[in-house]
Amino acid sequence: MNATETISDKARTPHVLHATTEGDAQFYLEKLAEGIVRCQEFAIPLLESVQQYSDVVSRLHRDRFVILRNYFPADQIQIIRVQVEKLVRTREGLAPIRAHGQETPQDVHEGTYQYFSNLFRQEIENPLEDLVSSVGIQDPLVALEDTSKLVFDSGILGMGTAFYGAMPMVTFLKIRYAFRNAFPPADTQFFHVDGGSYRIFKALMYLNDVEEGGGAFCYVRGSHRLKWEGWDQKARYEDAEIQNIYGAKAVVRCYARAGDVIVANTPGIHRGEKPVNKNRGILIVNYCLHPEYGFEHPAIRIRKCNRETLSPFGQLAAEHLVEVV
Q1: Could you state, in order of their start, the residue ranges of all structural domains in the chain?
Q2: Are strands 322-324 and 301-303 parallel, antiparallel or unpaired?
Q3: Which of 56, 66, 122, 144 has the fewest CB atoms in 10 Å of its CB?
Q4: Strands ordered across the beta sheet of 217-220
Q5: Any idea what DSSP says for residue 97?
């Protein structure tokens, strides 16, 4: 089969609101009010979370990202990393593989993506890292059940609750494995903004140590409050475009080790760098007060038996997930 054979899939039209509009802010405040009532109904200890995580939230409001060092045991992350690398090596349980080289900038902006056909994943003569820029895991909570311990960690849920002043829900989840190959940067390796809500509490967990050249999460300081007219006319931006506006020093790279957690508020401009020294695995989770709008994403699925083992607060955070047997 020709490896360039692709299938086109166009996402739904983005929501009419955008994450910086006055209407979006009003929608967010309405959901915040509903979330506060929800916390009261389920006796969620809001005040305790606000007090316990006040320092993290203060730093998050100030800097828009915080690195929590040694948050999880490194061996807990290693178990997941080994499982992910096995799935990548065997090509089992992978999400549809994007053919980034076949997508135009207009395609990306409109949410029209190109995917390699299923037969492409069955051709094992060449390693995936020789063929594509990155791959994702299909249904991480189902394929890798240990990830639920990270996603529904009581401390991270507590930070999210303190950040919003109400209990959030899991609205986006993915595990990506990026290759250090000759392919150019693609998709979220370019600078962009998450437009699914007025505020987004995002947790990023590297599955391996990430140092210089390792594919670090980058954040542009000040970009959450200072944007230029027409900035939202493109979905992705090159390095030079961002540096010309904010300066090179505004771009902060978050180097961290497996077991560290980066939490961020991502309506600011950010990206994950293309790794050049070694492959990089990452778990990314969004926690919001409402289902995110914008481009359609696959439903997040979780096994019924695993959901039942979550704490009461974890089950509330998972209430919009799709149960499977």
Answers
A1: 6-324
A2: parallel
A3: 122
A4: 251-254, 217-220, 270-272
A5: P
Entry field: residues in the chain = 325
Asked whether the beta carbons of 174 and 150 are under 8 A apart, the reply is no
DSSP one-letter string for 65-132: EEEETT-S-HHHHHHHHHHHHHHHHHT-SBPPPB-GGG--HHHHHHTEEEEE-HHHHH--SS-GGGT-
Distance of CA 275 to CAs 4, 208, 278, Å? 23, 12, 6
Query: What tens digit of pLDDT does each residue of 82-123 get?
Result: 999 999 988 889 998 888 777 777 777 666 778 887 656 556
Neighbours of 112 (CB within 10 A): 14
3-state class (DSSP) for residue 204: strand
Q: What angle do CA 60, 65, 66 make, to 5 degrees?
A: 80
Tens of pLDDT, residue by residue over 229-274, are 666 667 788 888 888 888 888 899 999 999 999 999 887 889 999 9
Residue 5's SS3 state is coil
Tokens 């000759």, residue? 182
Distance CA 61, CA 265 (A): 8
CATH superfamily of 6-324: q2cbj1_9rhob like domain (2.60.120.620)
Cα–Cα distances (Å) from 11 to 31, 49, 111, 296, in that order, read 25, 37, 5, 6
The C-alpha atoms of residue 59 and residue 127 are separated, in whole angstroms, by 42
Name the residue with tokens 């791959």: 135
Helix (H, G, I), strand (E, B) or coil at 236: coil
Q: Name 308's Cβ contacts closer than 8 Å, sequence gap at least 6.
A: 315
Question: Confidence class of residue 215 from pLDDT cuts 50, 70 and 90?
Answer: very high
154-164 vs 54-63: helix axis angle to the nearest 10?
Answer: 60
DSSP state of 134: E
Token reading at 120: 């492409």
* 3 state SS of 158: helix
